[in-house]
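USER: I would love a firmer grasp of how sequence relates to backbone shape in proteins. This is the protein in question:
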Amino acid sequence: MSVPAPGCAFFADNALDLLQAMVLAGEALRAGKRPVLISTLPSRDPARYKSSAPQAAWESVIFREIGGPRAKLPAAIAGICDADAIESITVFGSGPDCPAWQVGVARSLPVTRVGARDTGRILTAELPAVLDAAREDAGQGLIEQPPETSYILAEFPTYPRLRFMGAGRLVSTLIEVAEAHELPVVWPLTQVERRKLGLTGSFAPLECVERPEIGSWTLMASGARLIITHITSVQIAACILGIPCVSALQKTEAPETVQVGANLLAGANIAQLHLCVGIMARKLSRWSNPYK
C-alpha cells in the first residue's frame, strides 16, 4: 500500500491571499506534497487567473471553501485538517488573529507565515498576467469594468478587528476623505461586513461593492487614483501596479514600498490621513518595483 503524500494547507482570506496560495500550492504539488487550499472566497475558476504552472496540474489541488461567522471558522478549518490529514499550514499576512494560525498553534502543527518579500516576488510574477486576463474578461462582459471616473479604492476588511481605528470611525473618515478630495471611495465588503457596519443603503460618496475575486480586484485596483489600506499585500500590489498607496499604519511590514515612494504611512490620525491622501492623489507612478 502506497503512503499518501503529506497534506499541507494554505489559508486564503482575500483575493491576493488566494492568488499567492495558488502559486505556492503549485510549488507544493511539484515537490510531491498534497496541497489543500482553504478559502473564505468562492473559487470561481481560480486557475483562470494563474499563469505560472500548467493548468492541468490543478486537478490535483483540493479546494475547501468555508464561510459563516468569523468565530466559527477555526472549527471548520480544524475539521478540514482532520479530514485531509493536514501536517502543516501556510497563512498570509495575518498573525495570531488568523483562524488557520490559531488552529495550527492549538494542534502543534508547523505554521508558516508568508513574508512581504515572498509576497512581492509572487505578485510581481503573477499580477501582470492577471490584469491582462481580467481586461480580456471585462471586454467580453464576463466581469464588471471598474468605474470610469477617478476614485479611491479602500481596502479595509472588518476582520481581524480594526485595532487602529474603530469601524464606525473608519466609515466616517472615508466619507470625509471622499468629500474633502472630491473623489468617491469604493470599498469592497461582503454582505456580512456591510450589515455589521450598517452600510446597507446608499452612503455617497462612499460606494460599497461586493468583495471581488482576484481578476476583478486587480482591474479595480489598477484603475484607482490611489488606494487606502492597512493590509501588507495590498500595499505591495499597489506598488507593483503603479498605484499610489496611503497606509493607515504607523509602520509597515513592506518598508520598501515607502522607500521607493509608492506608499505613505498616515497612522490613525485623520488630519495626517487627509494630508497623505492629498499628496498621493497627485503623485505619478515613477518608482521602480523593489521586488524585481
User: Anything to note?
Assistant: The first helix runs from residue 15 to 30. The chain has a mean pLDDT of 87. Residues 103 and 179 are 42 Å apart (CA to CA).
